[in-house]
User: Which sequence fits this backbone?
């Protein structure tokens, strides 16, 4: 039987995140949009509290045989509510409050999702609740993350990192950075691994902070690594260089967790704009008539009801990707589908809300213009719209990244 109800544990997470978003985020939304790069100290204790109540943990091992049997009916008792599902339910609510503040919450960032995706239980114990950012992008490497040039060389019991990362969300204020680096350039993508680098290690320097369109409550940093030494066991996953595809797939698993999370953030932000728009128009006397054929709706009703339907689709696609991840099923395709849909629709919905509200929508007196600016990033980082569509096409058509570029 298909059940679309959230189980009690997730309802609790949703309610708790919603209260935090409403009572702790919304009142300071504009303040930290204006005070770009400033750490919102008011929410620091909330991060630890959320991490404790929302749980999390290292990933379950993906089971290929289980995947082959995917088409067989499953009994409900096999379902696991894991870290990814918990994170996406919480992320939608918190992003409904404020995307930028949500990203600034210690222990809830993309780096944490990356650690959850590929850490061992011992590594999760050490790093799981740290304030973690994620550094993949470099001056010469964006969408093609397989082309990164930051290096990690083993020297005795330590890895030595050299290179530059740019556009690292929370890169200045975080405690640890999950860094993608190559252990063997000649091995191509197979040589790329991820490493947890503590910010107090010598050889790590924040060199620049970006001024941005949206998510201004989070900082976005450039970081240089110069002979930065970290312990040997700070490598996430296996240090072994396997076959070309296997090696890179290991590190790409990170995206299977982080893409649904970004999708959920887009959904939360779009929902905030849509709810506000509907409430504002209702106050102006609009009545939204559900149940009529679309030919009998007026233009505003039709647009608003369609956006509500899109929002529901965004959420369901995200839940599917997260559920598959938690239940040890390969979910790269579904993670990219959710990110493509939510990134695109999040931008579209927030833009239409600004337009539907006219001057109020564009005014800085209301938050809807901010939600439009904030939401755009979800269609860019963790892989742009075009890259998600490429991943989806490759998965469905059975092409490799070399065959379909
Ligand atoms: C505010 C902000 C925060 C960020 N946070 C992080 C972070 O925390 N960690 C991190 O590592 N990175 C982060 N990034 C970087 C982000 O992930 C990259 O900007 C993104 O992956 C795109 O890379 P690029 O900017 O180099 O664009 P490019 O790869 O140069 O792409 C430029 C354009 O070309 C398109 N394009 C590229 N290749 C193809 C193709 N094969 N087919 C069709 N179209 C294509 C892209 O879709 C895009 O529209 C952040 C960026 C921003 C703006």
Assistant:
């Amino acid at each position: 039987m298909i059940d679309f109800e959230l189980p009690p544990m997730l309802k609790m997470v949703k309610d708790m995140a919603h209260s935090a978003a409403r009572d702790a985020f919304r009142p300071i939304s504009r303040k930290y949009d204006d005070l770009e790069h400033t750490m919102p100290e008011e929410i620091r204790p909330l991060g630890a509290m959320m991490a404790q109540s929302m749980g999390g943990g290292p990933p379950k091992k993906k089971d290929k045989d289980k995947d082959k049997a995917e088409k067989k009916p499953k009994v409900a008792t096999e379902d696991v509510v894991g870290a990814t599902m918990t994170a996406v339910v919480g992320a939608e609510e918190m992003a409904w409050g404020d995307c930028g503040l949500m990203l600034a919450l210690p222990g809830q960032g993309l780096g944490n999702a990356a650690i959850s995706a590929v850490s061992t239980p011992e590594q999760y114990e050490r790093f799981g609740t740290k304030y973690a950012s994620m550094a993949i992008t470099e001056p010469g490497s964006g969408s093609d993350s397989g082309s990164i040039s930051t290096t990690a060389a083993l020297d005795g019991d330590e890895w030595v990192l050299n290179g530059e990362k740019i556009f690292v969300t929370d890169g200045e204020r975080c405690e640890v950075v999950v860094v993608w680096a190559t252990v063997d350039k000649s091995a191509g993508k197979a040589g790329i691994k991820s490493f947890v680098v503590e910010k107090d290690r010598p050889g790590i320097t924040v060199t620049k902070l970006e001024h941005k369109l949206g998510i201004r409550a989070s900082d976005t940093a450039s970081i240089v690594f110069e002979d930065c030494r970290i312990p040997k066991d700070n490598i996430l996953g296996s240090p072994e260089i396997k076959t070309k595809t296997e090696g890179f797939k290991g590190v790409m698993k990170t995206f299977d967790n982080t893409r649904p999370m970004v999708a959920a953030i887009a959904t939360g932000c779009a929902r905030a704009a849509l709810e506000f728009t509907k409430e504002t128009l209702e106050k102006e006397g609009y009545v939204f008539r559900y149940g009529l054929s679309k030919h009998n709706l007026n233009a505003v009703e039709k647009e608003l009801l369609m956006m509500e339907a899109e929002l529901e689709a965004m959420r369901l696609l995200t839940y599917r990707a997260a559920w598959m991840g938690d239940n040890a099923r390969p979910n790269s395709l579904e993670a990219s589908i959710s990110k493509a849909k939510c990134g695109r629709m999040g931008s579209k919905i927030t833009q239409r809300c600004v337009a539907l509200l006219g001057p109020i929508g564009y005014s800085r007196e209301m938050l809807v213009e901010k939600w439009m600016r904030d939401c755009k990033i979800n269609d860019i980082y963790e892989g742009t719209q075009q890259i998600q569509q490429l991943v989806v096409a490759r998965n469905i058509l059975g092409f490799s990244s070399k065959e379909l570029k």
